[in-house]
């Protein structure tokens, strides 16, 4: 026996939006003795608290049926209606003749001291409202004692466990395709322009995927690692990758370079060291080296600039001018800023 018919004896108010509504119930069983002439029990014992299992529609049905009959603790004496509480008492109570029966299910029947019965339910939930069942047909205390037997804990399973339930069924093993790193896949050597250089590839482009980038590196003599290390020249990133921001935030010890730099090397067949314009993140070692090779706008002290470099340098100059103007505006008030501007123009 796993499904029990119990009667609602009390209710509990909810929290938040449900603080003015009864959302939980204190259910009970009949004593099974001293029944009146119409078979209605004259005594009911508290048995368990339960709040889950009802749908919204079922809760509305219960609210309509029980709502007018809920009584506060100060309104009447439950004992006059044959209700026997234990230590646990509800927020409101209801006369049994105005109540209804619920069909409930639980995992276990356990000993308890908070209720007037010797037992209560563990993990109970409501299955449905028994509108077809009168209150005198609810579970009795005698039936409850028989159900519990002499055990401290009684499982409420529908059937006994059979040997077939304990048989171990061997699961079919999934054959996982063995991962073969690109590093050991054979590739056709095309050049040695990347010989001696090690790279870590984060992401590629739509037209040049990460796997293709790694193959291209090895085709031209380079090597690829999954995680950067001291021997790694740089980390390559094509499309946006979250790890680029992490490298910036944590001031990573390895440069993060735009993938376009490698693409130019592969397309031209000539190796060229990356410049400040090729970097997404610059480590401290490279930053210190660049101080002696480039000015603050990215213009090299030793290498002639190309036509492609001019827009990049001018963009850096533009950003510096904007930063300077912003600094002046914040450092000086508007009037002083205008005076300073006029003085600079007149000095020319």
From TrEMBL:
GO molecular function, one term: DNA ligase (ATP) activity
CDD domains found in the cross-reference section: OBF_DNA_ligase_IV
Occurrences of domain BRCT (ranges): 189-279
Cellular compartments per GO CC: DNA ligase IV complex; DNA-dependent protein kinase-DNA ligase 4 complex
One of the GO BP terms on file: double-strand break repair via nonhomologous end joining
The keyword Plastid appears for this protein: no
Protein known as: BRCT domain-containing protein
